[in-house]
Write a structure and sequence with these properties.
The protein is of the alpha/beta class and about 270 residues long. The chain is built from ten helices and eleven strands. The strands form three sheets. A six-stranded parallel sheet has the order 6-5-4-7-8-9, with helices on both faces. A three-stranded antiparallel sheet has the order 1-2-3. A two-stranded parallel ribbon has the order 10-11.
């Protein structure tokens, strides 16, 4: 297990020129990050800037790579557009709020409890939306004065699909990155809404991408986002830091949906 990491390079393979022993790095892997040592392709790593602790760096890759890729590279989120981020208090959610705010978007975010939305305004959340019985489109239409949402970042899937379509503006774009709410749409998909609103819906995952695609994304993140961490304009949101010996308790906390941001495990 383990899809992201931060650590120190101990050995470089033949032909590796990007890194040297002792370099501090972070990145996404296809598995095996919950280990004292792992092997990573050189081009898929990003440098950890000076002044950023490894515990903080470990909370960056999966959340910020995913949010940046979905909102900026795929959805082409633009200044002044309205964006809806589901599970706003999650690792990806807190990263997406910050990136959307930096773009200059009007940021909407959902959670099932008001407590998890409290304080997210400091990251750039403009409109907190509490979801009740999987309903949120009506409140969003009211908050947006009937205009609807231009871009949705959805980690939920099935149970939110119809409400997402109802909440979207004409020519809206949705990037689906998770299926926490089910893999199918109850009652069928409202296809007429997709047609009449001319909506675009795209699925996206990082894990199954080719090494070349992952390297391209790592380069883009290193060039555009890392300087913002250095200047304090972006920050990884960390719920807690726990030793790897407490991994069971960490998963129980995550399963209980008691977190805001990331749980970081350390050796």
């Amino acid at each position: 297990p383990g899809l992201e990491l931060a650590g120190v390079v101990t050995t470089v393979g033949p032909g590796v020129t990007e890194w040297s022993t002792g370099d501090r790095v972070m990145g996404i892997v296809a598995g095996g990050a919950m280990a004292t040592r792992t092997v990573v392709r050189a081009r898929e790593l990003v440098s950890v800037p000076d002044g950023l602790e490894l515990e903080a760096a470990a909370a960056i890759p999966e959340a910020f790579f995913t949010a940046y890729d979905a909102l900026v590279l795929q959805a082409r989120l633009a200044v002044g557009e309205r964006v809806l981020i589901h599970a706003a208090a999650s690792g990806v959610g807190t990263a997406a709020i910050q990136i959307a705010a930096r773009v200059g978007a009007d940021v909407y975010g959902t959670s099932r409890t008001a407590e998890k939305l409290a304080g997210l305004d400091r990251l750039g959340l403009d409109h907190p939306i509490v979801v009740s019985k999987d309903k949120f489109a009506g409140e969003i239409k009211t908050a947006s004065e009937g205009r609807g949402i231009d871009v949705i970042l959805d980690t939920v899937g099935g149970s939110y699909f119809a409400e997402n379509l109802a909440a979207m503006a004409v020519c809206g774009r949705m990037i689906l990155i998770g299926l926490l709410g089910g893999v199918s749409v109850s009652g069928g998909a409202p296809l007429a809404t997709i047609l009449t609103k001319r909506l675009s819906i795209r699925g996206s995952v990082l894990r199954g991408r080719s090494p070349e695609e992952k390297a391209t994304l790592a380069t883009a993140v290193g060039r555009t986002l890392v300087p913002l961490f250095v200047r304090g304009e972006l920050e990884p949101v960390i719920d807690s830091v726990m030793p790897m010996s407490e991994i069971v308790a960490a998963h129980e906390r995550m399963d209980a949906n008691a977190t805001t941001g990331k749980i970081v495990l350390t050796w």
